[in-house]
């Protein structure tokens, strides 16, 4: 689980030598995972519906 939004690498962190993986590849993968995680958390929150206090009691 990624706890916070990933931060992009600093300019000096990329050597532009086409490394595999590049720091940018790692960043974009982490960002993709973080976005997916946020989407799942948002969907989970939407599924939790507040109880309607005005519903009839049986």
Automatic annotation (TrEMBL):
It holds the Pfam family Oxidored-like. This is Oxidoreductase-like domain-containing protein. Residues 3-41 form the Oxidoreductase-like domain. Residues 44-58 have a biased composition (Basic and acidic residues). It comes from Marinomonas piezotolerans. Residues 39-58 are annotated as: Disordered.
């Amino acid at each position: 689980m990624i706890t916070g939004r990933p931060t992009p690498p600093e300019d000096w962190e990329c050597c532009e030598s086409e490394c595999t993986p590049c720091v940018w590849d790692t960043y974009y993968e982490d960002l993709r995972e973080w976005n997916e995680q946020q989407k799942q958390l948002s969907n989970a929150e939407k599924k939790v519906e507040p109880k309607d206090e005005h519903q009839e009691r049986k």
